């Protein structure tokens, strides 16, 4: 048997032992030294060579895998990559199918992808379809490459979502280019199997060998390189395998990220990646590389499959939960609605959904939970019923309140038929009772709301004392009392608006209360002549309301009209204010005083208007308004408050005492006096005596303070105190006729001339006229001549009289014992 000798790597210098056996002691010593050196340095050199080999192997692996071939284009743009993709995949045919089966003679000849929509292409790529089956038979796995970029169905579906496509887009060249660019941007050029990176394994020590089958194959190192280079070679091989497998594992993860919950898509791209890497690996490593990468791919695919199954279970759970919620709600709505057919249908659907949920894998839904859903649905139905009952009840409440309001105003509401609905009475018993009673009362006594508040109150009181014969009488009496209260409140809060609501009908033959409500007022800032005419008509209507007892005081405007008129005065300049005030006076005459009292106007404007209303000079009123404008603009300084108040004497205070609000009247007069002072004294120093005197003159001119019958009195604007005194004395000339006519012969000192003048003058405020009385006797001339009679201003042209005694003033009365009021203008007119 032949003996195989162990081959030992020798020092290169030992060659000299064979080539120069007689080389001498010097060469022999050098050779021995070299051998000794080799023994010492070999371990270190082998370590270094191993490290170099490992680095060479890692570099070769990186070159082969491209760092991360699957997701990186390695600096290449899409436009640069497209020719490579077309060259390796479709040849640029936008209708290309696998093996060009779209072309003549192919299994799918005539199929034009560019004529399909995105959704039609997805349907064509159905994994269970003919095309997928054909490719599966060719390559042994599911794949559906289509078009210029050979996009498979799973990738097309991902691109559709990523690009926000609707699915109706045509798969023309532009759309396919968009899809190709999206794939390139998200997966890199490695997404296409036909594009292979060029990888070579190189080394400065690489050699080529011919194998026993005659093939030439590269080797990183020569088989004769010895142990040191073999160490380098082994390290390089180990590093190459480790780096390749590590890069492959990372690539598998990246491919997995590009195909979330898409095992088929992952498998297709991963297999392409493995084939690409194996093809470019050195032949000695291919089996091991493929085995390792396919194992890693299988593990990642199993993970994706598990994630997909988990997602499917989660979606199934969510879908089932949504169906339970939907049909539970439908069941509850059906039960609340009361339709038996809808209830049965919804219950059957909900029961089927719950049974399906009980059998759903991974949900662990129990029959007890299903029962709870049914119970909660029934509770929800009761809650819905409660909500609907509340909504209906509130709707009834609103309608009933409308009916009640209409009935209170003597009108008929549109929805009074609901009073016949038993459900209305059940849900709103109190309001139904009130509405029912008031509508019956309206129909039973339709004229009640046309009465004046005192008449309505009296009628209601009479009905309350009438013997009750049936429940209807109680209801009617209560409704009458409620209506009377409502009418009194309405006429108190906004009298003219109340008249517009109730439309009273007067009792006199020539009454202006004809059931049509107050005449409409024309806007004062429009046609002034039309506005004045409308004011005159309103004045007649307001006086009729007052005369027939609907109003406690003369009122001519609704609250809204008063606000509007006051706003017009505020917005106008002094001349405009004067014009508006003059129009009010022209339209309402002496009653304009009441209008200015109702309007929320500037006090000075109100004073000027009242001044004109009682016959004052319009030029003086305009002068007041102009002076106020000068004050407002800061062009004139007026005496301060102390100097102004000092002008108010005791006589002035006493003269104002009979007015309804004497302090407010004095303040209003002082404001007007300041305005008149400002118009006439622009250059006067306000602290001077001249200013004080001018202010007192202005105040005196405005208030008309004078002596009447020896006592201070506010006189009318067109009458002096002396003229007022003479007028009163002229009605009390002594003689027998007047005394006998009025008092039935109570003495010759009773007034005998013009008794009718006093009756006419006192026929105001809805009262019948009378001669002035002291106790139960007509007032006589002795009182007139005693200087004990004081005439008291009550506002406008209205006055009262009182006798001054030691124990205090005693009021002069009418023949009914009421304080005696007279209109001095009527007295003067009756005496002329």
Mean of pLDDT: 80
Structural class: mainly alpha
Which outline best applies?
elongated
C-alpha-based Rg, rounded: 59 Å
Q: How far is it from the N-terminal to the C-terminal residue, by CA?
A: 179 Å
Strand content: 5-15%
Structural features:
59% helix; two-stranded antiparallel ribbon; 4-stranded antiparallel β-sheet; 832 residues; 10 strands; 32 helices; mainly alpha; single chain
Quick summary of this structure?
The protein is mostly helical and 832 residues long. Helix content is 59%, strand content 5%.
Description:
It is a single chain. The chain is mainly alpha-helical. 59% of the residues lie in helices and 5% in strands. The strands form four sheets. Strands 7, 8, 9 and 10 form a four-stranded antiparallel sheet that branches. A hairpin with a 2-residue loop joins β8 and β9. α12 (367-408) runs parallel beside α14 (429-444) and α14 packs across α16 (471-493). The longest helix is centred in the middle third of the chain and has 52 residues, at 286-337. It is elongated. The termini are far apart. The model is unreliable at 1-31, 67-73, 197-204 and 735-753 (pLDDT under 50).
């Amino acid at each position: 048997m032949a003996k195989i000798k162990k081959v030992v790597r020798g020092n290169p210098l030992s060659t000299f032992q064979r080539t120069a056996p007689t080389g001498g002691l010097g060469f022999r010593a050098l050779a021995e030294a070299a051998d000794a050196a080799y023994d010492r340095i070999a371990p270190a050199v082998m370590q270094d060579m191993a490290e170099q080999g490992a680095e060479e192997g890692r570099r070769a692996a990186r070159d082969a895998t491209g760092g991360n071939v699957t997701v990186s284009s390695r600096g290449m743009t899409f436009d640069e990559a497209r020719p490579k993709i077309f060259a390796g995949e479709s040849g640029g045919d936008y209708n290309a199918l696998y093996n060009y089966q779209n072309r003549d003679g192919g299994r799918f000849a005539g199929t034009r992808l560019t004529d399909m929509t995105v959704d039609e292409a997805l349907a064509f790529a159905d994994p269970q379809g003919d095309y997928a089956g054909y490719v599966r038979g060719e390559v042994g796995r599911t794949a559906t490459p289509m078009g210029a970029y050979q996009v498979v169905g799973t990738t097309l579906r991902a691109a559709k979502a990523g690009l926000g496509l609707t699915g109706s887009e045509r798969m023309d060249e532009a759309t396919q280019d968009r899809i190709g660019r999206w794939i390139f941007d998200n997966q890199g050029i490695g997404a296409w199997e036909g594009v292979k990176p060029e990888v070579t394994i190189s080394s400065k020590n690489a050699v080529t060998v011919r194998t026993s089958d005659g093939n030439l194959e590269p080797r990183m190192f020569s088989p004769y390189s010895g142990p040191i280079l073999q160490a380098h070679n082994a390290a390089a091989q180990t590093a190459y395998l480790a780096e390749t497998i590590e890069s492959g594992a990372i690539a598998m993860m990246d491919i997995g990220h590009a195909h979330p919950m898409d095992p088929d898509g992952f498998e297709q791209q991963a297999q392409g990646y493995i084939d690409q890497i194996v093809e470019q690996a050195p032949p000695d490593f291919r089996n091991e590389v493929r085995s390792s990468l396919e194992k890693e791919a299988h593990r990642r695919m199993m993970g994706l499959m598990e994630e997909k199954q988990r997602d499917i279970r989660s979606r199934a759970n969510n879908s089932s939960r949504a169906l339970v919620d939907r049909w539970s709600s439908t069941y509850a709505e059906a039960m609340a609605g009361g339709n038996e057919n809808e209830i049965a249908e919804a219950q059957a659907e909900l029961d089927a959904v719950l049974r399906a949920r009980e059998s759903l894998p991974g949900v662990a839904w129990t029959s007890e939970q299903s029962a709870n859903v049914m119970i909660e649905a029934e509770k929800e139905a009761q809650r819905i019923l409660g909500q609907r009952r509340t909504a209906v009840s509130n709707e009834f409440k609103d309608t009933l309140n409308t009916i009640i309001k209409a009935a209170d105003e003597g009108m008929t509401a549109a929805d009074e038929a609901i009073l016949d609905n038993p459900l209305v009475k059940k849900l709103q018993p109190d309001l139904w009772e009130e509405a029912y009673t008031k509508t019956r009362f309206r129909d039973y006594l339709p004229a009640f709301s046309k009465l004046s508040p005192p008449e309505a109150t009296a009628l209601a009181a009479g009905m309350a004392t009438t013997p009750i014969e049936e429940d209807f009488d109680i209801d009617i009496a209560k409704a009458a009392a409620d209506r009377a209260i409502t009418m009194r409140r309405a006429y108190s809060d906004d009298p003219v608006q109340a008249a517009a609501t109730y439309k009273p009908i007067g009792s006199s033959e020539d009454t202006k209360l004809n059931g049509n409500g107050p005449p409409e007022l024309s806007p004062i800032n429009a046609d002034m002549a039309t506005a004045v005419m409308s004011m005159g008509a309103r004045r007649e209507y307001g006086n009729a309301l007052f005369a027939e007892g609907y109003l406690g005081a003369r009122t001519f405007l609704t609250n809204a009209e008063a606000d509007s008129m006051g706003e017009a005065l505020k917005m106008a300049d002094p001349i405009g204010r004067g014009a508006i005030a003059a129009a009010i006076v022209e339209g309402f005459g002496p009653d304009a005083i009441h209008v200015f009292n109702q309007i929320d106007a500037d006090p000075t404007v109100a004073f000027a208007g009242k001044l004109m209303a009682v016959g004052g000079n319009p030029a003086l009123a305009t002068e007041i308004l102009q002076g106020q404008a000068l004050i407002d603009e800061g062009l004139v300084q007026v005496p301060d408050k102390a100097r102004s108040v000092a002008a108010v004497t005791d006589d002035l205070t006493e003269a104002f005492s009979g007015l309804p609000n004497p302090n407010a009247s004095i303040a209003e007069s002082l404001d007007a006096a300041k305005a008149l002072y400002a118009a006439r004294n622009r250059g006067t120093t306000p602290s001077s005596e001249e200013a004080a005197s001018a202010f007192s003159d202005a105040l005196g001119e405005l208030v008309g303070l004078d002596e009447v019958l020896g006592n201070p009195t506010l006189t009318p604007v067109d009458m002096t105190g002396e003229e007022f005194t003479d007028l009163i004395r002229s009605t009390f000339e002594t003689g027998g006729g007047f005394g006998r006519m009025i008092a039935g012969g109570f003495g010759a000192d009773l007034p005998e001339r013009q008794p009718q003048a006093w009756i006419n003058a006192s026929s105001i405020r809805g009262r019948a006229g009378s001669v002035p009385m002291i106790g139960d006797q007509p007032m006589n001339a002795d009182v007139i001549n005693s200087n004990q009679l004081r005439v008291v201003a009550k506002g406008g042209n209205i006055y009262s009289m009182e006798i001054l005694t030691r124990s205090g003033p005693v009021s002069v009365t009418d023949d009914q014992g009421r304080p005696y009021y007279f209109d001095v203008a009527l007295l003067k007119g009756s005496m002329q």
